[in-house]
Design goal:
three-stranded antiparallel sheet, 80 residues, binds zinc ion, Ubiquitin-like (UB roll), alpha+beta
């Protein structure tokens, strides 16, 4: 794998758990999951499997937020 950030090649990448932001339907959601991280510069990318895991986490968190937000929106709608 080639690092797009520092152009490092070969076995520069290690599997590392990271917490990072995901954009989903206009929301910024923090997820924690395994990534392929460059040992030299810290840039990371995800394999297809890692991406799927993160996507599931993102969708779960998004659904949770929508539920949590619902009563607030209703209250706001009644204001004024
Ligand atoms: Zn790098």
């Amino acid at each position: 794998m080639v690092c797009l950030c520092c152009d490092g090649e070969g076995d520069n990448f290690e599997t590392k758990v990271q917490t990072f932001e995901q954009r989903f339907k206009g929301e910024t959601i923090m997820v924690t999951g395994e990534t392929q991280t460059c040992k030299k510069c810290g840039w990371f990318t995800l394999t297809v499997d890692q991406l799927n895991t993160v996507l599931q986490q993102t969708k779960r968190e998004y659904a949770k937020r929508q539920l949590a937000r619902l009563p607030v929106d209703l209250r706001r709608g009644q204001k004024g």
